[in-house]
Amino acid sequence: MDPEPGISNECEKENIPAILNGELFVIKNKDGNNVTAQCEVCNSKHKKIMIKGAINATSNFRTHLKRLHPIEFKKFTETPIRSYNRKKRKVANEYDESAPTNIDVESSVKQKQLKFSEVNIASNKHKQALFDQNLINYIVKSMKPLHTVDDLNFIGLCRDLDSSVRVMSRRILSRNIEEDCISVTGQLLQVFQNVQFICTTAVYLVHKT
């Protein structure tokens, strides 16, 4: 789905959130404050996934990134917003003659010097996010009961393997699975909108022989 004429130039001139600046999501359609953006991470894997949201409410985009692309989400959350906005500011200058052209945006952004403790914290956050996603996949794909995460033996097993990770509670697990369900349902609806026919099979009606 190609963007409407003028959408790219118009969006670059506005105060677009960093997550929609073209590196993670590319805005394809814009209607006032509402936007439809294509996930560039999915696109790199030959999957055309469109997510709907708003300029001032990017939770749908962040949820998609967090659940399906945890590594990219980690990089996004740990990178200073200014550096994510460099590309947007540069492109905006190309279309705005009144914008300063003799300012080197790259040189104006100072590199942040991370201390060892900060690096360690970032590493632990990434490890926890990866563990959480693997735990959700295990519960859902193996059809395990949600109370598995409350089992002391299961918690002990996880902590013995890595004492730095924490096992989420049943309540949080249920909420995360529900969020994943909403995200996947939205993606399926988007796929169904782009096909003319859908073939299904009522397996439960087939008599056993």
TrEMBL record:
<protein>
    <recommendedName>
        <fullName>BED-type domain-containing protein</fullName>
    </recommendedName>
</protein>
